[in-house]
């Protein structure tokens, strides 16, 4: 493994960057093809196979995160696969039952982050001390120590996720517009963090207007990171934040939290419109935004008369037109008028290891 001075800042940056890469790699195929395949698989069986493939890739997110984080540290093959395995162990995605093992989803993304951090730190401490015994000893040590700590910490970290969910759920007791603003604003930040908006929504059973405005908050985050990143990032990376997940910008947001201001303003606007137009969703759809068109499709289902021309127009305005208009306006306002940050502050990390 490469020799370099490892500061706390550099360590955290590498973990966050790898964490984001793994999430994006696992979720973008499902975001692009999941809903389309689900709709067409009844008529064309090949789409059923495609749906299974993208769903399998989504379930492999813990493994992808572990491998991506290890790659950031330039680990050799054995430590790299150890980190990937530990990420899966600490995710909590595997449930052991008397009849077998059940994969329940991606697991807890925050605990994956904690687990791979511990595993990478442990591997860095070991260094090259194992010598030729590394392939024999390291998998056992890292799996037992790193994976064991991940399993121990999982209930506590998961409780943190549920706690955030209960705070968000408390907003539902407010009047529709304040509720919409607060939920949309909350989800616009949560979706860029290691916490899963989908996990929160399903854990607290978020539905109705609360789910719809949560989706709009995710839209605000995706559009905000896309618009801001256009100035300094390659178009492919910006599109990944838009149609995939804005979690790809986790490290950027941690480095410059002030860039969340235009996102919050746009989320407040969208949350207000979501409450006024009664945009709704389900616990499963909340937290997706327009990734894979999950948010808009579910919103149309709850509108009077179904997918009529007027309803489609409302969805297009609220999920596409207003987010982009608001995104460009608030980003211009905060950067050019208020001078809260510079365009370079949206610069994302290079998602590859520099040789």
Automatic annotation (TrEMBL):
The keyword Cell membrane applies. It is found in: Cell membrane. InterPro entries: PTS_EIIC. Residues 14-347 form the Phosphotransferase system EIIC domain. One of its GO terms (molecular function) is protein-N(PI)-phosphohistidine-sugar phosphotransferase activity. Its main location: membrane. GO terms for cellular component: plasma membrane. The keyword Membrane applies. GO terms for biological process: phosphoenolpyruvate-dependent sugar phosphotransferase system. Coiled coil: none annotated. The chain crosses the membrane at residues 12-32, 44-65, 77-97, 109-127, 136-157, 177-204, 216-237, 257-277, 284-303, 309-333. It is a multi-pass membrane protein. Keywords: Cell membrane, Membrane, Sugar transport, Transmembrane, Transmembrane helix, Transport. This is PTS sugar transporter subunit IIC. It comes from Sporolactobacillus shoreae.
């Amino acid at each position: 493994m490469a020799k370099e001075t490892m500061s706390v800042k550099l360590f955290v940056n590498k973990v966050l960057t790898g964490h984001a890469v793994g999430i994006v790699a696992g979720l973008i195929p499902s975001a692009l093809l999941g809903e389309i395949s689900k709709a067409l698989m009844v008529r064309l069986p090949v789409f059923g196979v495609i749906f299974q493939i993208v769903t399998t890739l989504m379930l492999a997110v813990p493994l992808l995160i572990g491998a991506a984080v290890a790659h950031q540290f330039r680990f050799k093959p054995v430590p790299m696969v150890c980190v990937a395995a530990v990420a899966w162990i600490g995710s909590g995605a595997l449930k052991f039952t008397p009849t077998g093992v059940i994969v329940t989803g991606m697991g807890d993304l925050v605990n994956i982050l904690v687990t791979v951090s511990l595993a990478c730190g442990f591997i860095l401490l070991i260094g090259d001390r194992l010598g030729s015994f590394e392939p024999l000893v390291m998998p056992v040590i890292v799996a037992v120590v790193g994976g064991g700590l991940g399993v121990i910490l999982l209930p506590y970290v998961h409780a943190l996720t549920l706690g955030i969910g209960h705070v968000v759920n408390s907003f539902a007791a407010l009047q529709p517009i304040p509720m919409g603003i607060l939920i949309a604003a909350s989800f616009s930040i949560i979706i860029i963090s290691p916490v899963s908006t989908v996990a929160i929504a399903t854990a607290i059973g978020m539905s109705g207007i609360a789910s719809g405005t949560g989706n709009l908050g995710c839209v605000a985050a995706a559009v905000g990171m896309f618009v801001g990143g256009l100035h300094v990032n390659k178009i492919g990376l910006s599109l990944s934040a838009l149609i995939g997940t804005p979690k790809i910008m986790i490290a950027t947001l941690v480095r410059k939290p002030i860039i969340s201001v235009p996102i919050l303003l746009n989320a407040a606007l969208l949350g207000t419109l979501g409450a006024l137009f009664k945009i709704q969703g389900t616990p499963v759809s909340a937290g997706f935004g327009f990734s894979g068109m999950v948010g808009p499709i579910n919103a149309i289902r709850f509108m009077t008369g179904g997918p009529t021309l007027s309803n489609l127009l409302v969805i297009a305005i609220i999920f596409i037109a207003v987010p982009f208009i608001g995104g460009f306006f608030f980003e211009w306002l905060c950067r050019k008028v208020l001078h809260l940050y510079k365009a370079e502050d949206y610069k994302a990390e290079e998602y590859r290891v520099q040789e």
